[in-house]
Write a structure and sequence with these properties.
Blueprint (H helix, E strand, L loop, with lengths): L11 H4 L4 H14 L6 H14 L3 E5 L2 H11 L7 E5 L4 H9 L3 E5 L10 H7 L4 E7 L8 H11 L2 E5 L7 E2 L2 E2 L6 E5 L13 E5 L2 H11 L3 E3 L2 E2 L10 H31 L15 E2 L5 E4 L3 H10 L16 H7 L8 H9 E4 L7 H15 L2
Parallel strand pairs: 2-3, 2-4, 4-5, 5-8
Antiparallel strand pairs: 1-9, 6-7, 6-12, 8-9, 10-11, 13-14
Helix pairs in contact: 2-9, 3-9, 4-5, 4-8, 9-13
């Protein structure tokens, strides 16, 4: 019997090998400079990433979650306000709304793209709705033309949760530029990842980003002068230095992810497996995750593990199925979410990381086909 091939879901140490020397040099340089908070490395990265995204300004913060919270705070959203978001997303999207005291209103997702459904959003709008918080899930951009139409029609603010979509584009523009503010996460497994936590708020509205700069630093615009109630949420110099290096590899890594996605889509048996939509002239995914849907998902996952293949679930429950939501907002779940529920019951994320070999991708596809057809 041939040995089982080991294909981990996301081996960070392997992915970072080709830039390890540069990251080590960045650490040594930052240590020698002796400035670790709100220094030149952060300013350099903020300028570099803001330019990459296409916004006038970028504010580095301590996490993607804090970035979402600050986006809401910059827009003055709080108690009595409603914010519409997708029923299928990472929990942080909803928790950020809860943190500012606003009410999260869930909308179902499109069964094909898995992103928020524009028709469901419109049905959820009330006179208390203040903002749309859209998520570019798994790296695929939302229908931002549809989002912009609704925002204009109902005079709503828009926030983009770009945590999984660094470099993704809609109609030729990068995500994070279609809204009042965009929130990014630099968690290590993101397409653009730090070697720890990190996040950013991006916007071309300099009043918003000025507010974000104050919010991240105890509400201060001048040392020991605190104009607003803020917090400690600063992206440190070391992570900023690492991220500036990682940014140089982002487009190359995204291209590799796209090649892996194309191989999976060509090799998987679509009679039994639902695969994500391909890129086209309007939508270019960052391919943060390659997520398929199958019957008997949990059985498949166990079988793949026996074949040495790591997988994950993104996500095993929709937001309205989480206990924190049911205990606080059951009365606000005014809609049904059949698409989100179906996806969470059948989704499985396959390994798809920069540097993964063509042979390994084909092996994973072969094993998936083998088990779903058994």
């Amino acid at each position: 019997m041939p040995p089982v091939r080991e294909i981990p879901f996301y081996p960070l140490s392997t992915i970072l090998k080709n830039r390890a020397d540069s990251l080590h040099n960045a650490f040594t340089e930052t240590l020698a400079e002796g400035c670790f908070v709100l220094g030149p490395k952060l300013s350099h990265f903020e300028n570099k990433f803001g330019s990459y995204v296409g916004t006038k300004s970028c504010v580095g913060v301590s996490s993607g979650h804090d970035a979402l919270v600050m986006c809401l705070e910059c827009l003055g959203i709080g108690p009595g306000d409603e914010v519409i978001l997708p029923a299928l997303t990472f929990v942080s999207t909803c928790l950020a709304v809860q943190e500012v005291g606003a009410t999260p209103i869930l909308a179902d997702v499109d069964p094909l793209t898995r992103n928020i459904d524009i028709t469901a959003v419109e049905k959820s709008i009330t006179d208390r709705t203040k903002a749309l918080l859209v998520v570019h899930l798994y790296g695929r951009p939302c229908d931002m033309a549809g989002v912009e139409r609704l925002a204009k029609r109902y005079d709503l603010r828009v926030i983009e949760d770009c945590a999984q979509a660094h470099g993704a584009t809609f109609d030729g523009r990068r995500v994070g530029t279609f809204s009042d503010l965009g929130a990014f996460s630099f968690y290590p497994t993101k397409n653009l990842g730090a070697l720890g936590d990190g996040g950013a708020v991006c916007s071309s509205n300099t009043e918003y980003t000025a507010s974000a700069r104050a919010l991240r630093n105890y509400g201060s615009t001048e040392k020991y002068h605190h104009e607003i109630r803020g917090k400690n949420s600063r992206l440190d110099e070391l992570q900023a230095a690492f991220l500036a290096i990682q940014l140089d590899f982002l487009d190359q890594d995204n291209d590799l992810r796209a090649e892996i996605a194309a191989t999976y889509s060509n090799c998987l048996d679509t009679r039994l497996i639902k695969i994500p939509p391909a890129d086209d002239a309007v939508y270019t995914s960052a391919w943060h995750l390659y997520v398929i849907e199958v019957e008997n998902r949990d059985v498949l996952r166990k079988q793949l593990a026996k074949s040495g293949i790591g997988t994950e679930l993104h996500y095993p429950m929709a937001i309205h199925q989480q206990n924190f939501f049911k205990s606080h907002y059951a009365s606000e779940a005014r809609n049904e979410f059949p698409n989100a529920e179906k996806i969470t019951a059948s989704c499985i994320s396959l390994p798809a990381w920069p540097g993964m070999s063509q042979a390994d991708v084909e092996y994973v596809a072969e094993q998936v086909n083998r088990y779903v057809s058994a």
